[in-house]
Automatic annotation (TrEMBL):
Transmembrane portions of the chain: none
Listed name of the protein: RNase VapC
Organism domain of life: Archaea
Aminoacyl-tRNA synthetase is among the record's keywords: no
Keywords recorded for this protein, A-Z: Magnesium
This protein's record includes keyword Magnesium: yes
Length: 147
């Protein structure tokens, strides 16, 4: 299965699989925004929540950027469609960009964002009308573990 990973699943893969995360992400896709979403999540964990030290945050960010650089980067082709999907799902423009980019490239969206996944699944029929196909969304847990 060809998949587009959002920032939450990229970070989860790093946490869960460590140096083997590339096995999960090899040949997969993301959007360039993932770099910044990962960076923001790591900053939040280290600066606001204190769940990561600055040294740990730098290590996680370094690993994430190295992985993302090896992924296929795609972008949604139609920002108006992204806005329309954001309106329909009542979610952020950037989360909708993942949904649209995955659909436009016939990819399954991999996300740990349960709220986004629930909205996509709930509005699957309406999204199919907008996107031309029913979106597919899974979590990292629903993928087969690397060998």
């Amino acid at each position: 299965m060809k998949a587009l990973f959002d920032a939450s699943s990229i970070l989860m893969a790093i946490r869960r699989y460590g140096s083997r995360a590339y096995e999960v992400l090899r040949g997969s896709y993301t959007i360039s925004l993932a770099l910044y979403k990962v960076g923001n999540a790591v900053w939040k964990e280290s600066t606001l929540l204190g769940t990561l030290s600055v040294v740990e945050a730098k290590d996680v960010l370094k690993a994430a950027y190295a992985l993302i650089e090896r992924m296929n980067i795609v972008a949604p082709r139609d920002p108006i469609l992204v806005l329309t999907v954001a309106h329909e799902l009542r979610t952020t423009f950037y989360d909708s960009a993942y949904v649209v980019a995955a659909s436009e490239n016939h990819l399954t969206l991999i996300t740990e964002d349960k709220k986004l996944a629930r909205k996509v699944n709930k509005e699957a029929k309406r999204l199919a009308e907008l996107l031309g196909e029913e979106p597919r969304v899974l979590s990292l847990d629903q993928l087969q573990e690397p060998g």
